[in-house]
Amino acid sequence: MQKAQNKLGLILFPAFDWRITPTHPEREERLLYTIDQIEEEGLFDYENIFVYNPEIIDDKYINLTHFCIPDVDSIATISHKIAASSCITLVKKILSNEIAKGFALIRPPGHHAHRITYGDRGFCVINNEAIMVEYLRKEHKIKKIAIIDTDCHHGDGTQDIFWNDKDVLFISLHQDGRTLYPGSGFTNEIGGPAATGYTLNLPLSPYTSDEGFLYCLENLILPILEEFKPEIIINSAGQDNHYSDPLTNMNFSAQGYAKLTEKLNPHISVLEGGYSVEDALPYVNLGIIFALAGIDCSNIKEPDYDPEKLRQSTRISEYIKKLCENVYIIWKNKEQIEHDVKKKYQKHFTRKKSIYYDTMGFLEQQLENIKICNKCSGLITIESTCLNYRVLAIVIPFDACDECYNQGYDIFSNTDSGSFSHVILQDKRNFEFYKKEYSK
Ligand SMILES: [Zn+2]
Ligand SMILES: [Zn+2]
Ligand SMILES: [Zn+2]
Question: From CA 385, how far away is CA 375, in angstroms rounded?
């Protein structure tokens, strides 16, 4: 019997009963071909490779992560909940040392789901990785977590949720937002006033290849992780950087993904996008599985793989070198930048956001207000308008000082229906969630 070096847990959840439309690229075949390929390779028979069924999680972890409008069950299906649960099941087994690594091969994906969520955005409704983070903090008292998003699209939802949270380092590599959905993820997006430098974005040129990705990893991401020292590393493992992906323009290969996984060495990888259903996903998924399991993956190659054709231009290599230098400067100077931002805004940091729900065709308007507090990361209030809803979302952060904590509860109890349809409080300090609903 062949044996994996690392004990690896897999959850394979193709979500047969959920799709946007039958021909939509985000459909169950995304995983069915991979499952066939895993079977063909005999991976299910390897010693140290375990396949689990997900448990269904309690909605409380969703409500600690998101403000679901009008409520969880109106926007998230059982498939969404199982996808999120899969991550929790795996990470639980990692923490109990039953396995060393986990790979959640699940759908629907999650990284475009923001803190406030009204439904489907970029094929995402709830954020699988973010829900896992809240679970880890509540149930396992894990403090420092890193999420490295290697999906081809900017992980704008994950960025939004941990924007002002220093305990979660979020780094996203993606095709430049000027050329791809969702159009964000530029180097100047570096986190809120209490967490500047803990959100880092690497917008990459179209046609970047394995070489460019691995350069970013070795020269920027690994040194930063070394300094940050996370207790858990999560990889949002989107596979749409693949050269055959129909939605994107990158030149990444299965070998590239395998090497990336080997070097990043995450505790858990979570499938995000990847729409080259037959030509890429089975190979890339296999590459990631082998790398996580510590099995030699040098033989995994797409039938049409030709590294010559995928070679990136010198212009791209030079751009990436400069990009990594610039982002490292942000990381190195984060304390000074934070100091300057706080000095500039003094009491409150506000930002207006328009969030487009591409799948559903509606627009949300947000006004976010982050209190600048010298004792904690500061109370957050968000006014959000979308469809017929008008929401006041209040977030008491994990590290809330008593003043911000009390202020959050005061705002919650003193805001009556007025113009709001929903007034919701997330108390992350005590892991509580309260909601007042008014008829529209
Ligand atoms: Zn990304
Ligand atoms: Zn993607
Ligand atoms: Zn405070």
Answer: 31
